[in-house]
Task: inverse folding
């Protein structure tokens, strides 16, 4: 059985890039997703190293979160990322399959 964390990594690499796309549209500055096995975060390549280290440190101490829970450190992430204006976030399921869906 493939672990759920594998699908989070696949989703990240499929949906987002942490450096500019060929059309120069930047990826998200910070991306955090979770499952019962743990959480995954990525930061955009142009963020300062100190900020990335602080974001990753906070993410490392997050308890695993699953829908509909939210990150324990949400307000701190928003504060750190909000230096250039209000930071935005979006919560939702990456995917949800019916229990009787065949693989």
Result:
């Amino acid at each position: 059985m493939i672990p759920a964390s594998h699908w989070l990594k696949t989703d990240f690499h499929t949906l987002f890039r942490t450096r500019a796309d060929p059309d120069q549209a930047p990826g998200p500055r910070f991306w955090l997703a979770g499952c019962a096995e743990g959480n995954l975060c990525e930061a955009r390549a142009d963020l300062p190293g100190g900020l990335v280290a602080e974001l990753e440190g906070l993410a490392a101490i997050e308890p695993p979160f699953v829908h509909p829970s939210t990150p324990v450190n949400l307000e701190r992430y928003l504060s750190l990322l909000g230096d250039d204006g209000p930071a935005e976030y979006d919560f939702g399921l990456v995917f949800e399959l019916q229990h009787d869906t065949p693989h």
Notes: The chain has a mean pLDDT of 79. The two ends are 11 Å apart (CA to CA).
